[in-house]
Amino acid sequence: MSDYFRPLVRNDRPRPDGAVPLAGGPAWFSHVEHLRRDAPAERVPASALPGAVLDTLSAARPPVCGMSFDRPRIMGIINVTPDSFSDGGRFSGPARAAAHARQMVADGADIIDVGGESTRPGAAAVPIPSEIARIEPVITALSSAVSVPVSIDTRKYSVAEAAIKAGASLVNDVSGFTYDRMLGQYCARQGLPVCVMHASGDPETMQDNPRYDDVLLDVYDFLAAQVLMLQDLGIPRGRILVDPGIGFGKNLAHNLTILRNVSLFHALGCPVLVGASRKGFIGRISGVQDADRRMPGSIAVALAAVAQGVQILRVHDVAETAQALALWSAVERGESDDT
Ligand code: HH2
Questions:
Q1: Is the pLDDT of residue 311 over 90?
Q2: What's the CA-to-centroid distance between 119 and ligand 1, angstroms?
Q3: pTM for the model
Q4: Which tens digits make up the pLDDT trace of 120-152?
Q5: SS (H, E, C) 223-259
């Protein structure tokens, strides 16, 4: 791919004549940034875009797991791992996980993401039987405890299969369907929605000097190729979420470049998910070493992402994120229960 089009997303009202809705949602754009690897970026009006690009950027995204994308959605995180960087060990066991999930839903979570393998930098792979033993009873408990969909955060087909049988309904693969060839095939056979995330390298080594020609465009090309691969397997674009993978084989400058330009990923025609919650770059910039104390920075990043039309935020702090989104929407878009 040689031409990339990043919508310059706006949220203010009223929309001017010629404003194009972004992904059929409340955000809009009238101009895009035309990016190329071998030429400076140019600002061009939306009216000058090739028809297919304009259609992809503006078309409404179909609901995924019953979630429509007319407002930002919150994915609450439950890690049933002893070693996750922020909540490791805290929610292991079905009863504690179910209580936490119930609270997250009451606080505004639209989907709960359960993971049984830490993917923090330096983490070692977990054997499949251990990962299944961690997630299966928790997903079974969550299926009756909460009314929202549950997703399984795994790179492995056998783990996904056990999770789906236990009641999960979306597969979130941080390897972008590169780790286990059978996972994509399984999701296609089962008609499951998926989240395809970019990672450079595996968790054990991914932060050892990550390099890109152009981080934004390289991540975009990877996701574009994986979306095509998943479509070839039989998963329609409308069932695919895309995620640039903040912190996965990316240094501080890489993370910031992606976040600053995250609206580019709307050109893939799929809802965009961002998971920045409590991650290391927030600690680097804020000087806060304790991951549990990075909620304010996480919310700042979440709001910057929704300002660029990101549809799903993967977060630890659901209540705080929901409150921040409600206020942001009320101020920026004039949307509140009282209007
Ligand atoms: N980040 C983590 C895990 N899964 N999935 C998606 N789609 N996007 C992400 O950014 C993402 C993810 C890592 O964060 P966390 O689950 O909090 O920690 P750990 O991997 O240590 O369990």
A1: yes
A2: 6
A3: 0.96
A4: 878 888 999 999 999 999 999 999 999 999 999
A5: HHHHHHHHHHHCCCHHHEEEECCCCCCCCHHHHHHHH
Atom of ligand 1 nearest to the CA of 174: 5
Q: Where are the domains of the chain?
A: 1-60, 66-333
Pocket flag, ligand 1, residue 197 (CB < 6 Å):
yes
What are the C-alpha distances in Å from 322 to residues 76, 131, 191, 273, 328?
A: 11, 30, 30, 16, 10
CATH topology of domain 66-333: TIM Barrel (3.20.20)
| Bridge partner list, 10 | 28
- The whole-angstrom separation of Cα 20 and Cα 291 is 39
DSSP codes, 259-326? HHTGGGGGGGSS-BEE--TT-HHHHHHH----GGG-HHHHHHHHHHHHHTT--EEEES-HHHHHHHHH
Q: Which sequence positions are flagged as catalytic?
A: 279, 314
Task: Give the contacts of 273 (CB within 8 A, at least 6 positions apart).
Answer: 75, 195, 197, 241, 242, 243, 310, 311, 312, 313, 314
> Do 254 and 210 touch, CB atoms closer than 8 A?
yes
Query: Tokens 């929407």 identify what position?
Result: 329
- Centre of ligand 1 to C-alpha 285, Å, is 19
Measured distance CA(85)–CA(275) in Å, rounded: 14
Rounded Cα–Cα distance for residues 135 and 162 (Å):
8
Residue 189 CA to ligand 1 centre (angstroms): 25
Q: What is the pLDDT of residue 333?
A: 81
Mutation test residue for ligand 1: of 64, 113, 272, 314, the one with most atoms within 8 Å of CB: 314
312 and 72 Cβ atoms separated by less than 8 Å = yes
